[in-house]
Design brief:
This protein has about 280 residues and is an alpha+beta fold. The protein has four helices and 17 strands. About 55% of the residues are buried. Bound molecules: 2-amino-4-trifluoromethylsulfanyl-butyric acid and cobalt (II) ion (2 copies).
Length: about 280
């Protein structure tokens, strides 16, 4: 079921998927760009000896200085602007006092609210000397997001997106996390539909112009199973293998999609950061 976002309540409404108009696209364009600017600003800040807490503070101050709102702050009790997920952390890592070390890989995920619209975006950052297998994992994850995005057009289905991601990831002998998914967003942070990163062609709801959602595959070098640590947030790979993730917020257009969270500086590819090569 699809509903006109202009007449729908600003909350999740059963199974309904909102279809947005041109003003909403403009709002998401601004919010997505803001999220990308936060992650661009952090390029060069993520390095050996710096703590994740410090990175989160830099992100928070940047967001507030621009008059934007950090969406995660206070969300279900979460107290930070970013999630910073290191090495075997799959997602929802809480920025803490541990300093980055050479060889670390970290996902930094930020959601910014601009004029009521949510821009949700994450990238991988490599610290110092990153191993070949970690770089390969980041490359596979980034490429899987590109393939998911390439599957987006009116008439395709959510299953087509999941299939594009899963088939590529598994062809590279990696695994797709099942326990977390992308999501509709707009004036609501986490809205319908759920965008799972695995699936079969033709299955699931059909994509229509005006749908907004994230695609945010989490890819593991080992098996796909995850555990949640006692803090109630941090998701880790059960086998402690490395995990990577990239996330874009997108809108379905008449002939494909618009990526709202593209980097104004072209920095949203893997391990561009602190990577001398
Ligand atoms: N940004 C995350 C996402 O991609 C959500 C983080 S919720 C938080 O959906 F509370 F952990 F910050
Ligand atoms: Co998201
Ligand atoms: Co996110």
């Amino acid at each position: 079921m699809y509903i006109d976002a202009d007449t729908a309540p600003d909350s999740r409404n059963d199974q309904a998927i909102k279809l947005h108009g041109p003003e909403a696209f403009a709002g998401m364009r601004a919010a997505g760009k803001a999220a990308a600017q936060v992650l661009d600003m952090l390029v060069g800040e993520v390095k050996e000896g710096v703590t994740a807490e410090r990175i989160d503070t830099l992100a928070r101050d940047f967001v507030l200085d621009h008059g934007w709102i950090p969406a995660c702050m206070g969300y279900r009790g979460y107290q930070h602007t970013t999630c910073i997920s290191l090495n075997h952390v799959v997602c929802h890592g809480i920025p803490g006092p541990r300093a980055f070390r050479s060889g670390d890989i970290a996902n930094i995920d930020v959601t910014v609210i601009v004029d009521g619209w949510h821009g949700d975006h994450s990238r991988m950052y490599g610290v110092g000397d990153v191993s070949r297998k970690a770089r390969r994992l980041m490359d596979v994850t980034w490429e899987s997001l590109q393939r998911g995005i390439a599957a987006v057009k009116p008439g395709a289905t959510l299953g087509d997106i999941g299939h594009a991601i899963q088939s590529f990831v598994e062809s590279q002998r990696c695994s797709v996390v099942r326990d977390f998914c992308g999501h509709g967003l707009g004036r609501v942070f986490h809205d319908n539909p759920n965008v799972v990163h695995f699936g079969k062609p033709g299955q699931g709801p059909e994509l229509r112009p005006g749908m907004f959602f994230t695609i945010e595959p989490m890819v593991n070098l080992g098996k796909h199973a995850v555990s949640i640590l006692p803090d109630g947030w941090t998701a880790v790979t059960r086998d402690r293998s490395l995990s990577a993730q990239f996330e874009h917020s997108i809108g379905v257009t008449e002939d494909g999609c618009e990526i709202f969270t593209l980097s104004p500086l072209g920095l949203d590819t893997p391990h561009t950061l602190s990577d001398p090569n």
